[in-house]
Amino acid sequence: MYLCEGGVQVVTLLEANAVRLTLQGQVYDLARVESANGTRFAAGTLVWSIQSEGIFEDDADAANPKILAKGCRLQSTFPASATTVSVITGTVSFGPHPALPENAVLLVELRDQNLAMGDPAAELAQVRIPMKGRASPVTFELPLDRSKLSAKVRPALSASITSGANRLFRLNNPVVIPELTNPAPVALALSPASRGKSATPPPAKPQNPPQNQARSAH
Known about the structure:
This protein is mainly β. 0% of the residues lie in helices and 46% in strands. It has no helices and 17 strands. The chain has an eight-stranded antiparallel barrel with strand order 1-2-3-4-5-6-7-8. Strands 10, 11, 13, 14, 15 and 17 form a six-stranded antiparallel beta sheet that branches. A hairpin with a 2-residue loop joins strand 3 and strand 4 (26-32).
């Protein structure tokens, strides 16, 4: 997995002379091409190049290529064998709503329900999708390395939409995924999360002490 500028994530699955690249829920199959500098894969006008950093661009307009992701640095790798990788697909809906903030991000995670929420080992896979004006429902693809799983794992999907420290929408109950070898598509329906406020409640306001109703005798 590559982490790029703006928090964008690029997931790649390498094969013999090709790569399957996932960006913001979209999957691209690219073939290796000859390159004098670094590694290069392409499909039509789409190009994924890797030197010290990765860059994904659309060269339909050669004079002004469209940058889809840049400044991508490798964070982790999947096993070379594609047989251990599954892709969970589905949609996330959050109903009619006013325009989301510019920095709103959809987070879809697969977590082990046997472990506590704050345990880093509970996270099995995740994908972050910048909303950028997207309307409900939003499609997603979540690659998962099954070689990291054990028989004791209870995998379930969770999802939320956040804006900075504020959580706007959340999935009330995790959705258990019983079959991960060839998982069926899932539909996740989010609910408003406390009007977009932070999950940490504000401190309670002190109550005024009760006034003494008795009057002093004169």
